[in-house]
Amino acid sequence: MAQTYSTPIELRFSDLDLYGHVNSVVYFTYLETARVKLFQDFFKELTDKHIFTLVARAECDYKLPILFGDELVVTVALARIGKSSFDLEYRLYDGHEKTYATARTTLVCFDNVKKVTVAVPECISRMALPEKEQKI
Fold first, then answer.
1. Which of 102, 108, 115, 132 is at 20 to 30 A from 77, Cα to Cα?
2. What CA–CA distance (Å, rounded) separates 120 from 50?
3. Has domain 4-135 been given CATH number 3.10.129.10?
């Protein structure tokens, strides 16, 4: 089983739509927040080497609405590693049993100096090793 990383997300009033729940498009900003924290905490060396990860695909399956005042945690796990891309899977939940959504992004590794795709760096492959859940 791959390592998982979790981070709490603070809901903002501006995240809500006219129906009083978090707007569906905002879920993607929650995914981005978790992904950025993951990369800042564990993959800073990529930025130092000018290797960026570009979102090539993003999908989300909505299960339950998130209401203002709900607790929200996003968990991230490596789901697939390809030659120059990899997939992350996400769970947006209340920190217990209630799942609000599940999601997946495909990221492509890109050398921002040479402007070409590159192989998935080993530091990302190591994320697939079994370990205890880490908080980010």
1. 115
2. 13
3. yes
